[in-house]
């Protein structure tokens, strides 16, 4: 078993101001590992994409005035590894394999380009997506920082 250096859990309302909040929190949390600027940027980007998906997609069917929550759970492991899980209790994804394909989007307004999962995958070492339609989605990312 890898030893855990630190861990945290966070619950935020799924509103757009919390994209920036989650990026800042994750930066502060991983500072202990002295990441390079590049590593920090990678994690910030990947977290941002996952959080944005909770805000934009997960709760799209909620009635006006109701807000859902984003749950972020992060851990630092020895020697220099970070894991971040971002989950929601939203609408879920019917076909995860299809959703992960580059350029796949359910957005009809033309604002999204369907690259979110690709960004999460390319900026981390592993990406696991679990989703149950009607129940929610969970995205687990891991990254090993340079020694
Ligand atoms: N948390 C989520 N809840 C529900 N659907 C999601 C979630 N995350 C992603 N999706 C679905 O997967 C698709 C692809 O996501 P992504 O690669 O980030 O592209 P984009 O957000 O640009 O559409 C989204 O269009 C959406 O249908
Ligand atoms: Mg997205």
CATH architecture: 2-Layer Sandwich
Rounded to an integer, what's the Rg over CA atoms? Answer: 15 Å
User: How are the strands of the largest sheet arranged?
Assistant: 1-2-3-5-4
Helix content: 25-40%
**What ligands can be seen in this structure?**
adenosine-5'-diphosphate, magnesium ion
What shape does the CA trace take? globular
Helical/strand content category: alpha+beta
Contiguous runs where pLDDT drops below 50 for at least 5 residues: none
* Gap between N and C termini: 19 Å
Looking at the structure, the CATH topology is: Heat Shock Protein 90
**Largest sheet entry:** 5 strands, antiparallel
- Percent strand equals 25-35%
Account of the 3D structure:
This protein is α+β, with helices and mostly antiparallel strands and 147 residues long. The protein has a single domain (4-144), classed as 2-Layer Sandwich (Heat Shock Protein 90). Helix content is 33%, strand content 29%. It is built from four helices and five strands. It has helices at 17-30, 37-58, 96-100, 116-122; strands at 4-13, 69-77, 81-88, 126-132, 136-144. A five-stranded antiparallel beta sheet has the order 1-2-3-5-4, with helices on one face. Helix 1 (17-30) runs antiparallel to helix 2 (37-58). The longest helix has 22 residues, at 37-58. The chain is globular, with a radius of gyration of 15 Å. The mean pLDDT is 96. It binds adenosine-5'-diphosphate and magnesium ion. Magnesium ion is lined by residues 49, 52-53, 112, 116.
């Amino acid at each position: 078993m890898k030893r855990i250096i630190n861990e945290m859990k966070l619950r935020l309302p799924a509103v757009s101001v919390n994209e920036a909040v989650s990026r800042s929190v994750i930066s502060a949390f991983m500072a202990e590992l002295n990441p390079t600027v590049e590593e920090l940027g990678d994690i910030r980007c990947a977290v941002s994409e996952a959080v944005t998906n909770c805000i934009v997609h997960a709760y799209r069917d909620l009635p006006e005035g109701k807000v859902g929550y984003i749950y972020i759970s992060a851990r630092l492991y020895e020697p220099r590894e970070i894991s971040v899980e971002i989950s929601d209790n939203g609408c879920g994804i019917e076909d995860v394999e299809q959703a992960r394909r580059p350029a796949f989007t359910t957005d009809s307004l033309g604002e999204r380009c369907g690259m979110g999962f690709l960004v999460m995958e390319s900026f981390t070492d592993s990406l696991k997506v679990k989703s149950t339609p009607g129940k929610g989605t969970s995205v687990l990312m891991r990254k090993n920082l340079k020694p």
